[in-house]
Amino acid sequence: MIELTGWEPLGLSVDWAAIEGELGVPLPADYKELYEAFGGGVFSDSVYFLGRDEGVSFDLLRQWRACLSVDRDGTYGSVSAVDPYAVYAPGGKGLVEWGSTEWADEYCWLIDAERPGEYPVLARAHDVGGWHRYDMSTSEFLYRVLADADFLPFGVAQYALTPSFEAGSGGGV
């Protein structure tokens, strides 16, 4: 990803124990490496990557807390925004969003507290029904999205976007 985007790694220091303690599961090692190198921000002007930027729009925990709150709110019945899944709750099984696009595509991990270390990527395109499962790492999925024009329906390379990265408003710090 660094070579693809020409990015100079930030080398961020992150308290992963605190983040993983709140989630109740470890996060994928390659995701942590990506975040430490890039921080939260936008790839190729269209793919949003969530990290740990407290107080800004690219914060994975803030996004997860909001989704979990909405998913647990019984005001509208038992329908989930990530149906047929649920938003991950500590100790359970469900989705944690780590990325999205300007076209409302969603990129999540399917996390099962009873199977730590397994993080299939589930992705949903705004105009293509249903979730697609990818048994690959976060970084491989993101690389394919950015560089593989044939990675349909998620590849943004088909739009001839230059692989790039722009740090979020917190600059990843």
From TrEMBL:
One Pfam family of this chain: SMI1_KNR4
Domain Knr4/Smi1-like: 11-144
Superkingdom of this protein's organism: Bacteria
InterPro entries for the chain: Knr4/Smi1-like_dom, Knr4/Smi1-like_sf
SMART domains: SMI1_KNR4
Protein name: Knr4/Smi1-like domain-containing protein
Species annotation: Streptomyces lydicus
